[in-house]
Amino acid sequence: MNFPNKVKINEVGPRDGLQNEAELVPAAAKIDWINMLSETGASYIEVSSFVHPDWIPQLKDATEVAKKIKRNPDVTYAALVPNNKGLDRALEVNVDEICLFLSASETHNKNNINKTIDQTLPIIENVSSKAKESNKQVRGYVSTVFGCPYEGDIDVEKVISICDRLFTMGVDEISIGDTIGVADPVQVDKVLTKLLKYFPKDKLAMHFHDTRGTALANVLVSLNHGITNFDSAVGGLGGCPYAKGASGNLATDDLLYMLHRMGIETGMNIDKVIESALYIENYVSSLSSHQMKIINSER
Amino acid sequence: MNFPNKVKINEVGPRDGLQNEAELVPAAAKIDWINMLSETGASYIEVSSFVHPDWIPQLKDATEVAKKIKRNPDVTYAALVPNNKGLDRALEVNVDEICLFLSASETHNKNNINKTIDQTLPIIENVSSKAKESNKQVRGYVSTVFGCPYEGDIDVEKVISICDRLFTMGVDEISIGDTIGVADPVQVDKVLTKLLKYFPKDKLAMHFHDTRGTALANVLVSLNHGITNFDSAVGGLGGCPYAKGASGNLATDDLLYMLHRMGIETGMNIDKVIESALYIENYVSSLSSHQMKIINSER
């Protein structure tokens, strides 16, 4: 096996983490927390989501949070945007990067945003082009790539065709999501082998959830394919929307433990990451990261 | 990457799991539980440890448990044995396989059994030879191979020399242990590359703990080396003696989820394994397996 020397980590805790936690975290705490995250060596932080506040009440304070955080010039601050209205709000607070999203599963997309995939694509194409006019980086999220709670297996050809549309509309990078944390290493190997026939490896990020404990094994396979871009959330924030109490996003701290010990650089400080996980733990129910379990057991 | 089609799993929950849990489980519950495990398709179950009851009070009922379980002829029932006295007790109840143990770390061995490695080897050599005379299979455990809580890194040459002694004394198989769950995939790759220069892959089993979340990634690297023999404990029993509340043994149910989805046969039934984990959960504090978290969140 052959691994890269350096990896970029995208901290998605304030967005993908908090949006799946039951608790509403006060804006002031989010701001303090993101300020802590900004000092961990992170180069990318997803601060919130500019969806309609009724959709995700946990992130209804997106504008306030994005406005009041202290910007570290070494960090790209990103936010999720579903449509032009969301884009206007994101541009108003001048986030650095715009994240578009859709699902590789027709049913999941429909249940998530009440539109078919074909109805969704022109909307985000429009957002992408406007974001580009405003000189913003654009990231695309493709979710449920490795399995859907409604449809089960997802055809890789469908994922390829969606990625193709996203890159054609000018998206800079696509995050390939295992939204419900079902992927196994053989599947990741197969999916990446196909995707990398069409798209360059430095344009893809992998987004694993640790619901069934396979996230780091899936990271390993991705590293072996030369992927150097991974999404994660401090403390393993985010649970699983389909099984409350289950593990959520791959924990940034678990990812850092493995990568650093493998001799792979990330630029991030694991102690500071754990500190920021301990901070947000005061506002949500128990976190699922292994590093946190060790720390908490020693307190 | 290249993976085997079939893997053997050694269920160590009743021994390595329970010995690291704070609670004393009643013998009757252990017996019921091991009887459940015997019906999961498991081919190997480590039922207890014949160490002095003062050392590990959790397993002081080894004789009663081994005597009263219902033996499934398809299962090898094994037990840990530290010396001739322990062997006599194990032979009295006619376990199928005798497990010897020592640490690759001098300090850990001393703290664990109050003897140097050089003092330990002749003792277990004697036990091994007597066990063989009684037509028993003999398994050797080498612990703290990937790191020791007292000494830190362990020299692989030390591990090789211990394994060599064990195989020379007639041990049939050696379990290579990451006792405190620190191993990373690059380290596992390096250690296995060296070990497999000296010893055949079908004589080695890998014993990972999931303390830091890396167990399945380490299994993946081992599979890629052709290892087909893994130790695990249902529900992730066993905690971590150095950080109470932290994750313990690699959960058999997590291991099965990954292997089965990768298309690798184990002969075990994951639903029955989870049932047996739910049973023992009534007697110990919360289990750490991801499959259990999903099940418990749905109850």
TrEMBL record, chains A, B:
Keywords: Lyase, Metal-binding
GO BP annotation list: ketone body biosynthetic process; L-leucine catabolic process
Domain Pyruvate carboxyltransferase: from-to ranges: 7-274
UniProt xrefs under InterPro entries: Aldolase_TIM, HMGL, PYR_CT
Pfam families: HMGL-like (PF00682)
Record-linked NCBIfam families: PRK05692.1
Protein name: Hydroxymethylglutaryl-CoA lyase
